[in-house]
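Handout, section B. The chain below has 363 residues.
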Amino acid sequence: MAHEETKPIRFGILGCAEIARKVSRAITLSPNSTLYAIGSRSLEKATKYAASNNFPSHTKIYGSYDAVLDDPDVDAVYVPLPTSLHLHWAVLAAQKKKHLLLEKPVALNVGELDKILEACESNGLQYMDATMWMHHPRTEKMFQFISDPNLFGSLQSVHATFSYPTSPYFLANDIRVKPDLDSLGTLGDTGWYCIRAILWAANYELPKTAKALHKPKYNEAGVLLSCEASLTWEDNKVATFFCSFLADMSMDITAIGAKGSLRVHDYVIPNEENEALFRTSSNSYFLELSAGWNPKPSEVVVKNDIPQEALMVKEFAHLVGGIKYGNSKVENKWAIISRKTQVVIDAVKASIDNGLQPVPIEY
């Protein structure tokens, strides 16, 4: 019987989004996948996109999304379309028996996501959202630290940020600020990462309440450009996050435990492609006259041989290969994590829409 490592998983891409340039490169760099097909709404656009992004010569180029889904040799699809199109195309991909790597935000609300997940589940298909930093080896190292009862202790607080400055052109034209394409705005784009980071630090224990912290900033079309919120748990853990298209580049996680703390300044996209670092402190106290720390914080550097997005593709293709060529079952943890992230986004949006009132979170 063929093994998944000997037969690369054949990927199709729906659309010519900017983020697909990065993921198409990742599919090529991953050892167990191949960039098999791309489809756009026009053959001309797909052809130009493939040429300008150095797609392999064997990549099939189609003038429609349907053509990619109708190709019987496509094993899996990566969907980087605007969020408002995810429900239609993700469900259709599942109906066509294609495993699904879905760009975030994965849906406009949890009701839409449930339909996508149900389509994948009923067809025995692997689902994963494209939150790349989850697959960096640094992430596992950081989790080992915050899971250590002696070095970190019980989680007390998390603060996460993801912001980046945008141009006037972006604010006028990008799909992320268009109400008919990505109506969640910065909450869906950068807020997704913040909420995922908080849930990750809490070992995916859902908070009980979400509350927006101040009046958010919108564009003229009513799409969120900047917002901040707090999350609380029954055991008094607390988290806050800030996401924005209007602030300096920031990708921070600060997680504070009873005995230690974790700080990382580039969790979404590491400062360097082949290594990443984080800082920890454990059981520290003041030196004499409060003149310093003892012990001092530590810096941990983690190297990786291929970029985090290629590691994501590699993990996804491994899961797909196990289903296609072996006896493996679908790995459900990615669907669960995705749904929890969406549930919190929905609650934060509800708090914003309800005049900053606290909103209970229900899975």
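Note. The chain has two domains: 9-133+309-331, 154-257+342-360. Compare this with the example in section A.
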